[in-house]
Amino acid sequence: MRVSTSQIYNIATLGMTQAQAAIVKTQEQIASGKRVLSPADDPVAAANILQINQDLARTEQYKKNIDIADNSLSLEETSLKTVVDLMQRMRELAVKSGNTAVYTAADYQSLAAEVDTRIDELLNLQNARNSSGQYIFAGYQGDTQPFVNNGGGNYSYMGDEGQLRLQASASVSVAVSDSGKKLFVDIPSGHNTFNTSASSANRAVPPAIINVGEVIDQEAFDKFYPEDMVITFNSPGAVAPAAANYTVTERSTGKVLVANAAYIKGEAIDINGVRLSISGSPVPPTPASLPLNPTATFDFSTAPATFKIAVNGRTEIFTVNTPVNNAADFATALNTAPNNAKLTSLGLTVTAAGIVSDSGKNISIHSGNANLDAVTGLTTTTGVTSTNGVAGDAFFVESSNKQGLLTTLARFSEAMKTVKDTPESKAVLSQIVAKTITNLSNSITNTSAVQGEVGARQNTLESSRDLNLDVVLFSKQTLTDLESLDVAEATIRLSMQSLVLTASQQSFSKVSQLTLFSYL
After folding, report:
1. Residue 505 to residue 502: CA distance in whole angstroms
2. Residue 284 carries which DSSP code?
3. Torsion angles phi and psi, residue 246, rounded to 5
4. Do residues 446 and 187 lie in contact, with contact meaning Cβ atoms separated by under 8 Å?
5. Which of 124, 279, 288, 366 could make an S-S bridge to 383, C-beta 3.0–4.6 Å?
């Protein structure tokens, strides 16, 4: 077999290159202290190393989560402790204020001033923020201020019932916040009570305000409970002489409880054991109307026609069975029995000018025919609805078996501000004081329970922190076993590889000089 000169050089080059690569690889291992520098070095070990590094990265994130969670819970714990201290002080003050035989109306004014100060303090605590600027009692709505003062002792909760959670370990997640609704709003009341609010559609500028109100006759309110009430402002023309007036209805049935009562700003409104007041200038309704524009006449005595009118979800069927030669005839037909009673039930008036809803609730007419279309100028066949009506300002009284902490204190303050030096007035105050003490006790119990939950979560975080430390220690030890280099073995291997390279170089040097020309 003939070995060419080029083959000798190629074989030598390949051998020395491989030897040099082995030396470089061993030097890199020694320099880094790692046995596995690439997956090719040990595919199984490389896969395990990657998995362990990912686990360590997750555990590091868990550590950060635990620190964040611990800070949040510490802030919540501090806030709740301050709230409990505040409530205990208010309960002491309520017990003190029960001495109605000793204290005068002037004394109660001073006591109410302290309660008002505490209400402001409580509102600030309930709107506390963490180091990131997030409201801690707003649920998931961390950017939204949870508690807003609506005036009149009324406060709205603008957050939600969410509870933020953070992952503390692979198998443990911990709640790091509590909803302000759960903590400060949904507190069981010692008696049936109510909440007041203004409709978001109210148009008064500045807004008319309904106060927090109070139950002055528990027995009467218990009979009405759990129904709600709606106070709606009517057109001034609903009373004579024309003046601001309102109607109170039962929310579920529409039953009228008080009709067209005169409105006097700030004057007490007593109904079903409830006393409240409205201040400001509520806007009356803008009447809804459908004008009559007849285009023809028709004798309905020969072919009576029916159609339907609907107002605010209530529908009545009307019949026309007399000759109609103009709009006035049509109005007369609707103002005649039995149609007139149906108009009254819908709150409508009909004249030659048109059909009007003074309540501002829009009117819908449908299910008519072509003849009715002609004598009214309205599309009674396909249906027509007014669009110009706007309801008057409205306020709600909603029954509840829960009472928020701010509401409890607001009612307590209001009762002391309005008490008079009479046995009757102080008797009402005594009832409210007793209810205040009960509800404050319920609030303390509710908040203390959450304090216990917060403490349990902090214990869970501490346990998770210890567990994560153990996981990190074990993982790092396993990682060391998988990727660490045996330096002594690598040093010997490097010496051997260097010897092989040197031998290869010297051998090539000798072989490369073996030519025929050397023997001529």
Report:
1. 5
2. P
3. -140, 160
4. yes
5. 366
196, 177 contact by CB (below 8 A): no
DSSP 226: T
- Name the residue with tokens 């809804």: 288
> What pTM was computed for the model?
0.76
Q: Sign (positive/negative) of CA torsion 56, 62, 68, 70?
A: negative
* pLDDT averaged over every residue in the chain: 86
In a domain, 372, yes or no: yes
Sequence letter at residue 145: Q
Nearest to 275 by CA among 236, 233, 229, 244: 229
- The rounded distance, in Å, linking the Cα atoms of 35 and 488 is 12
Query: What's the CA gap between 455 and 72, in Å, rounded?
Result: 12
Question: Whose CA is closest to 396, among 255, 228, 208?
Answer: 228
Distance, in Å, from the CA atom of 311 to the CA atom of 322, rounded to the nearest integer, reads 25
In a domain, 242, yes or no: no
Beta carbons of 482 and 45 less than 8 angstroms apart:
yes
Each residue of 36-89: pLDDT tens digit?
555 555 566 556 656 766 767 777 888 888 888 888 899 999 999 999 999 999
**353 in any annotated domain:** yes
Other Cβ atoms within 10 Å of 133 Cβ, number: 8
- Residue 3, pLDDT > 60, answer no
**CA 312, 314, 316: angle at the middle one, nearest 5?**
130
Is residue 84 within 8 A of residue 76, CB to CB? The reply is no
Nearest Cα neighbor of 130 from 178, 61, 86 is 178
What CA–CA distance (Å, rounded) separates 209 from 281?
9
Contact 155, 171 (CB under 8 A): no
Closest CA to 94 of 427, 416, 423, 443: 416
| Rounded Cα–Cα distance for residues 56 and 393 (Å) | 61
- Domain span at residue 358? 288-385
User: Structural domain tally of the chain?
Assistant: 1
Place of tokens 């080029």: 6
Under a CB-based contact definition with an 8 Å cutoff, are residues 318 and 339 in contact? yes
Neighbours of 355 (CB within 10 A): 25
Rounded to whole angstroms, the Cα distance separating 453 from 179 reads 13
Q: Which helix (H) or strand (E) holds 197?
A: strand 188-198
What 8-state DSSP symbol labels residue 214?
E
Burial class (CB in 10 A: 0-12, 13-18, 19+), 72: buried
Does residue 264 belong to any structural domain of this protein? no
- Return the number of other C-beta atoms located less than 10 Å from residue 497's C-beta: 20
pLDDT attached to residue 88: 95
Distance CA 87, CA 100 (A): 21
The C-alpha angle 69, 70, 74, rounded to 5 degrees, equals: 120
Query: pLDDT per residue over 352-373, tens digit each?
Result: 999 999 889 999 999 999 999 9
Q: Please enumerate in sequence order all residues whose Cβ is within 8 A of that of 50, keeping only pairs 6 or more positions apart, or say none.
A: none
Order of strands, sheet of 394-402, starting from the edge strand that comes earlier in the sequence: 188-198, 394-402, 229-233, 245-250, 256-262
Q: Is the CB of residue 409 less than 8 Å from the CB of residue 443?
A: no
- Determine the 3-state secondary structure of 83 from DSSP: helix
